[in-house]
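Hello forum,

I keep getting stuck at the same step: I have a sequence, I want structure tokens, and every attempt I make locally crashes halfway through. Rather than fight my setup again tonight, could one of you with a working pipeline run this one for me? It's a single chain of 486 residues.
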Amino acid sequence: KIKELEGKKADIISKVNSLNTIRNTLQSQNFDKMIATNAAGFEDGFFTATVSELKALYAKRQELASIYKPNSEPMREINRLISEARLGSTNSLKNYYTKYNEEINKINSEIVNADADLASFPEKERKYLDAERGHNMIEATYNSLLSRQNEAQMNVATNKSDITVIDPAKNLGQSPIGPKIKMTKALIISGMLLLPLLFILIGEVLDNKIRNIKELLSATKIPLLGVIGNNSNENMLTVLEQPKSSVSEAFRGVRANMRFLMDNDGEKGKVILITSSIGGEGKTYVSINLASVIGLSDKKTILLGMDLRKPKIFGDFKIDNKYGISNYLTGEVSIDQIINKTKIPNLDVATSGPIPPNPSELLMSQKNIKFIEELKEKYDFIIIDSPPVGLVADSYELMKHSDANIYVVRHEYTEKYMLKMITEKYHNDEIDNLGLVYNDYNTKQGYGYGYGYGYGYGYGYGYFDEDKNYKEPLLIRIRNRVQVLF
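Reply #2:
Ran it on my machine without issues. Output:
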């Protein structure tokens, strides 16, 4: 009986050792050394399924870790499933430990009782039985372990890959069929050379603005009268407030270069019209300061605000705009009532007046032409701040009655396709005596200072360029760029 009890005890101790191995494997996650639960003598289907599931979940987590970040949703979900499986396997292990400890205690109790019965045997027979019992226990333990080892080896063998290397690759001294290294290198080098050129071309197509003097001169053959730098002062009267600045000197240069556009014969005053493509390019700024620098040269000058849709100059000279050119052209007031003196010597100003419902008709009327002719009898120079030519046709009609026309191009603002429009009219002799002023040129690019000011209005009439957030669609910008190139 004692021999039988010792054999049962050895079998249970072997199972406890297997439990320890499985527990250590679960903690280390080294599943390559995991013994099969059925080989360890555990027939509990739930425990076997839990261990198999945990092994699969760890493999899945290793796969996901190469794709997702640790805090991503897939990683959090797989970690949750692993925690649940670990909890299930841990509970199963505890149940097995409890069960085996109870069985060992029961067997030990039975062995103690059997030993008590054995004490009544003669001493020699008792010693023989003790030795036989020890031998039998060791033999039973050995046989149990040997049996489980064989089962474990069979289980590992069934888990091996079914892929077998028949013949390893050999170097036969020939060049590989693929990839073709020389061709690949050639393609890489070609791509490295062509990609920057492609990016530059795309940038040129999408960037349609005038960014330096070289681009301006290559985009048009219209004479350049001068370059005005950036003015950091928000005051529009730069020539008056900063007479010694480089900006003021640039306006004096424009005044000197205008003589090449105008016919100096005749006793009447000269009409100079200033326009641009759209609002915001600085035509009013140029008009005010050019009129100022001419007035300061002892020439009797008048500045006319004929951008009737966007009255502007009255605010810069702090003049009441209640009565202006629009009132005169509708017959409400006389010429003398709209002419205002300024603090600049020899410079008068006639503001636009209230915004009329029919600005184009008023500007192209015979009364407006007679108005300009009458002013030519009184002044040496008449400076007209006219509407942008890219938005309305008013300025083209006024150009027919001017002695010189100045087209303002603003640095990094005017688009090349807009400049192309005025250039075509110039080459077709539709506009006479035309010159360019390049405005707001950046001092970092090697010239001058520049100006900065807003071109916003608060009236019910205006041009579409007032929306500063508006941006033309990409396809339209590409089309305009291609038209400029070809």
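Residues 213-456 form a domain with the Rossmann fold fold (CATH 3.40.50.300). If your local run keeps crashing, start a new thread with the error log.
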